[in-house]
Write a structure and sequence with these properties.
heterodimer, A: mainly alpha, 2 domains, about 0% strand, elongated, B: mainly alpha, Rna Polymerase Sigma Factor, Chain: A, Arc Repressor Mutant, subunit A, about 65% helix
């Protein structure tokens, strides 16, 4: 009988939930502190687990669950969780809209002052639009537009299957009452995104009109 | 008593009594895992509710050839992990096991169990889950592996490592083991 053998027997006893025949090891344990300590730990944990007190049922849990399943009562934390779940997407969209608005609400250049408001210099054409010397601003706008389109594309591709799932009568209750499922997470998002989407579409239209040749890239 | 498969069939047929029985049958198991994982009675109630609602709504996807317990515990464990991630910036509750009404009080024998609860909170969530699923919920190592998504060998390693760590913590907390040859 050696330490390795004891270690294996200990592990096997844990995995099989069987008592360790410790009496057979009495002699070895008398002279091996490490094995004695391992056996003490083993017994200590087994006793602790045995003494683990059981839980009382949560008295209202069954009723709460049945109420949710019946659709009698929305989950108490639904608003909070839904709020959290849609914050990142809406924040990104809203920030992008603000950037676009700021960019396009700048006063239009006049013949007199236009050179000072352009990024790279004085060159403007007769329609107050940028020329080749002020490509930087144009580039920024173009990149913003592309990023925005990409973002909206992602949002739409995420929302499309969820819309379909919500429309499915089988998931109707799910979409209405279970904030923790995907349908529940995003069921309010399309409506909330509509104003942003419209604003974005207008901005894109404006950009396309402004840079028709670049828009076709 | 109806088998799980019979009960689920009745639930799927819209039998409200069957639904009640299903929830009654498993709520204690779900709640206890949530409570041990989250350490808060209120959070455990919320996550238990969420887990059971989710499970009931997914009953049509349960494979009746397989046991209900690991399937339901997998859902619960996932919800617990999500809850833990969401509050990862908040401090873990220090008062782990003495909330009024949370436990069946058993004077004289509760100390060691309380010490074990306190020691458990010092483990990583994965090791804590592994220990709870094996010891409290009596799953086999293979079933624990299924729930946690790891091979059985990994679970065995975690289990032994966790037991060793817990024993160390208990010793550090002044719980002195005494070897008994009477088993």
């Amino acid at each position: 009988m050696n330490c390795d053998e004891l270690k294996h027997q200990l592990e096997a006893a844990v995995e099989a939930r069987t008592p360790l025949p410790i009496i057979h090891w009495r002699e070895h344990l008398g002279k091996c502190d490490a094995c004695r300590s391992a056996c003490e730990d083993h017994q200590l944990l087994d006793h602790a687990v045995e003494e683990w007190t059981s839980f009382e049922d949560s008295p209202d849990l069954t009723e709460q669950i049945l109420a949710i399943l019946d659709g009698d009562e929305p989950p108490k934390f639904s608003t909070q969780r839904l709020g959290r779940s849609r914050i990142p997407l809406i924040t990104v969209l809203a920030t992008s809209v603000v950037v676009l608005i700021v960019l396009f609400n700048k006063p239009k250049a006049t013949q007199d002052d236009s050179p000072t408001m352009l990024v790279n210099g004085p060159a403007v054409n007769e329609n107050h639009l940028v020329t080749s010397e002020s490509v930087d601003l144009e580039q920024v706008i173009l990149e913003t537009r592309n990023a925005y389109e990409s973002l909206l594309g992602q949002a739409q591709s995420t929302i499309a299957p969820l819309k379909a799932a919500i429309a499915d009568p089988k998931h109707e209750q799910l979409a209405t009452h279970d904030q923790s499922l995907q349908g529940g997470h995003l069921q309010f998002v399309p409506a909330e995104l509509e104003p942003l989407k419209e604003e974005f579409t207008q901005s894109v239209g404006f950009l396309t009109a402004l840079f028709p040749e670049r828009g076709s890239r | 008593m109806q088998t799980d498969a019979e009960l689920v069939t009745s639930c799927l047929d819209g039998d409200r009594d069957a639904l009640r029985e299903y929830v009654d049958r498993y709520q204690r198991m779900v709640f206890s895992l949530c409570y041990r994982m989250l350490g808060s009675y209120e959070d455990a109630e919320d996550v238990s509710q969420e887990s059971l609602v989710r499970a009931v709504r997914a009953l049509d996807r349960w494979d009746s050839e397989r046991p209900m317990k690991p399937w339901l515990l997998t859902i619960t464990a996932n919800r617990c992990r999500t809850a833990l991630m969401k509050r990862s910036r908040k401090p873990f509750p220090t008062d782990f096991s003495v909330e009024p009404g949370a436990l069946d009080q058993n004077p004289g024998r509760v100390d060691l169990a309380e010490e074990l609860d306190l020691a458990l909170k010092e483990l990583s969530p994965e090791h804590r889950e592994c220990f709870l699923l094996f010891h409290e919920h009596q799953l086999s190592c293979a079933e624990v592996g299924e729930v946690l998504g790891h091979p059985e060998g990994t679970i065995k390693t975690w289990l032994h490592r966790t037991r060793k760590k817990l024993a160390e913590i208990l010793r550090q907390r002044g719980v002195v083991p005494e070897l008994s040859y009477e088993l």
